[in-house]
Each structure stands twice: as structure tokens, then as C-alpha cells.
Amino acid sequence: PRTPASMGDVPEPCPQAPLAVLSKVELRVSCKHLLDRDTLNKSDPCVLLLMQSQGQWTEVDRSEVIKSNLNPVFAKIFTVDYYFEEVQKLRFEVYDSHGHAGVGTHDDDDFLGGMECTVGQIVAQKRVTKPLFLKYGKFAGKSTITIISEEISGNNGYVELAFRAKKLDDKVSRVPGGTRGRAGRAGSALPHPLLQDLFSKSDPFLEIYRIDDDRSEQLVYRTEVVKNNLSPIWEPFKVSLNSLCSCEEKRKLRCVVWDYDSRGKHDFIGEFFTTFEEMQKAMGENKVQWDCMNPKYKIKKRNYKNSGVVVLLDLKIHRVYSFLDYIMGGCQIHFTVAIDFTASNGDPRNSCSLHYINPYQPNEYLKALVAVGEICQDYDSDKKFSALGFGARIPPKYEVSHDFAINFNPDNDECEGESSSSGAGSMAGTPLTPAHPTGIQGVVESYQSCLPKIQLYGPTNVAPIISKVARVAADEERTKEASQYFILLILTDGVVTDMADTREAIVRASYLPMSIIIVGVGNADFTDMQILDGDDGVLRSPKGEPVLRDIVQFVPFREFKNASPTALAKCVLAEVPKQVVEYYSYKAFPPRCPRP
Question: Which fold has domain 331-416+436-587?
Fold first, then answer.
């Protein structure tokens, strides 16, 4: 279409879209080998998406019904909000619809199977395929469901463009009667006040349109009008890559040059088509130019070459990556827990001890460990967590150690649980997740078996453990890839003894791909620990060197004693996505290529 967008007296440059604060994720669903419940025809599947909130499952959306298909690919795209610091449990239920409006609520809508997972698991793997289960954990034959995720609110940066044109067609011409008119409107004399423009030239402006998949055109940007100039230079402008090309470099763009008319009847000068991929040739000292073509003239005029030339003088790309860009690019979150085994915790055999193992009620160390680890495990593909201890005498010589593996394997401090869950469970309301998350279970078992073998001692030195994890993070940094980020969870019952060394270690760690979470367990006075959390000021080393990034979060566990188990994780993990992006932005490491 050649009709220009409706405009007011003066075309205003289009404002940039604001950056999204909340991440949204699109989920695409397909199934294979569904059970055939119909006698005469194949099943007519429909998928329901449910989300758990406060222990209750609530339907949030559903797909269309696909007739007579046991391997459906659903067109419906589910959209969910994404929060790193929460375990967002999803349930997908597949039904054979019999034409009722209330799919899943009628006895004659056959249940074909269901699957539970978390949003974190889906975005970390980008593509998840799992078996479908019937009620009470029975496999639904060979049925599987596949979920593919894609971030939609991530703004992959913006681009700065500078255009000019040369030798544009002059749409102002003399018309019969000697008055000034617009080409293509011969004989329509302009009102007397406009006779003063008799010798003026065109007033060009440029519009850029993005051509979407349905061939519709979305206006991306409209430049200002340059008055009385056939070789205008427009002001440089910025647009987000999401707006310009939906972050797809090969998406076609239509660029149109108009001659401005105050009555809104702008004259078409010419157009050209390009892509963001082609535009990028203008980076540095290079320039790219296009013939500005008027299709009507091309047909009518034998020697027609163009209606001018449009030149892209400069292009600057400012990439802005989101946390999900890195996670979906394959970045793993490696979780390490460090546990305080100093004598101030009390004898583990005594019920007053902070390390007392109550078979009916986990102690504060276990509660904090599970709350934070349950989130992090979704972002670590091998589900093996490093678990370290400090402040205890350890076998065989019972010397004090401040960085020992609680599985007593100095060559491999990663813990692996003896049991894991297949993901089966009842779709009649019974959760499908295991009692302990698989990754956490190994740490829990190592912690419980470690306690009888060690002697609680002291002092409370945490700098050795921070430095130990930092050495691993430094090796990762040298790969110059966004492949692994480290989270160190320190659980302690008192103020650290080696505060100067700890501050020095944190400053060093702030230059590495790691974040530190410190949870104060018990009723000690943790006032002096607040200095490690840079919220009230910048943490500095003893020599006065400031941290590069604020990477420490400290909270006393007692503030969450009466809150839900998820409240602690929300508090201490909410800053991690920002810390990950800050580090990789500082290093100028882009996300790795997404996994196939």
C-alpha cells in the first residue's frame, strides 16, 4: 500500500518503546504418541495449562482443540511471567475433547495424560520433552509432551541510525495557470497564501516500516521534516532492535520517503526495501545506499533510474542482553553451599543445637539450604551441588579446616543424592515433585552423615571458602564465555572472625562471575555483618579498594521464621539476575549460542 500514515500538522519522530521490567516467556506445546480414546476416530486433543499458587492448582489458559490427531502441534502460545527467585510450578494436562466448552470438567472428556515442571526448568533447557502420566503415576503409554520456551520481553539492545538523501525528485512543480502545485495534482491551483512558496523545493521525511510475518506493516520510526531540501540530512535516531526487526536480522523493512503537505496529503517520492542485516554494512567508515524507487515512474518512464538515493551514513549497535538471554544461551548457575560447623552452634546431639537433626522438623540450616537450592537446581544441568564446611576439626587427623568438602572427598566436593524422582505422580491433585529436590537431596544426605564424624570448633573464618570458589570462577572467566556463573550460599550462626580477609576476598570476587548470599542462622547479633552487604554503602577492602559490583546479600534467617519457605529465596535471589547481567556486560561477553 502506498497510502501514508495519517499525520498531524508536523510529523513527530516516533518515541522509543520503554524497556520491559518484567520478563515474559512464550511456551509452545506439542505432543507425540497420544493415547487413542475414540472408537471410530483418533483423539481430539486440547492442552490445559495450570499454575500452582499457595498449594492450589489454577487453570491459567488452554489451547485450541485439534481434531483427530495423536501427534498435535498446538498453535496456541502460552505466555507466563517469569521470576528467577521463585519456584513457579506448572502442570500441563492433555484431554480428548468431545466438543464441550468446559474441557477437563466433564466425565466424557478423556484424560490423556499430564506433566509437571517449573518455569525455571523450561527456560534453562529451552526445550523440554517429558513423558505424560495418567492418574497415580501410571505412564500414558509412549505419550510425550514437548515445551519450547522463548523470551518475548527481552529487549536485545537498540540501534542508532543516521540517514540522508541525495537528489530526491522535486514534487513541487508549475501547473497550468502559472501557480505552484504538487506533481500528480495538475490543475489544482493552490490558495493565494501559498504563492510565496512558488520557488520552494520538496519537504522530505522518511518512514521505516517493519514487515511482519502476516505481511502487515508496522511503523517503526518517522523522521522529522527537512524543509525545502532535495538532499536532506535527517537527525540521527535510536530504535530498539525488537521494534526495528523483532530482533531478526533478515526481517524485511520498507523505507518510504514522502514530501510533506500540511493538509496531510503527503506526496509519495519513493521507497526501497532492506534488512537490518544489510544495514549493518554501514558500521565504521562504510556507508550503504539504496535507490529510492517510484514503481509508477519505473513503468511509465523508459529511462527512469530512481527518484533519488537514500544513504545510511552511520549505524551503531548497542546490545542489551537480559538474564534470560544468558540462561537460554546455555549459561549454567553453579551452586555452592558453605556450612558453619563452629562450636557456637551447640552439640548436634542436643536438641537445643542449631545442627540438631529432628526427624520431624528440619533445622534452620536445612530450611535455608533447601529454600535457596531448590531455585538454583533448575539452572544446573548435572544437578550436583558443591557443599563445603568451615570451623570444624575433621578426620582423619582432626585438624581445624575452613574449606573442607562435607562428603570428605577433596577431589570432588559435589554431592549426589542416592534417590531421584522420575517425575511421576498423581494427576488427581498429588504433587509430582519429590519430597526433596533431586539436586538438594545429595547435599542434605552429605550434611546429615557428616555431623557425627566431625568436631565443632572455630573460629568463624569464611574468607578461605570465598577464595576457593573464586579460584574456580577465575578459571571460568578465562574461557571468555558466558558459560557458568557461581552462587555461594554461606550459612553461619555468628559474625565472621576474619572480617578484614573476608572484605578483601569479596572485593576480589566482585571482578569474577559469582554472587555471595549470607544467611545468619540463630539468634546472634548480626549487626556487624551488615557491612558486607553493600546496600547502605560501598564495601571496601582494608586498603580502601571498592567492590566492582555489589555481589553480597545478607539476611538473618529469623526474619523469615514465620514466613512461607519461599519468602527467604525471593529475598536473597531477587538481585541475582541483575548481578549476572552486570558482570557479563562489564566483561562484554555476549550470550553463547542457544542449544539446538
Answer: Rossmann fold (3.40.50)
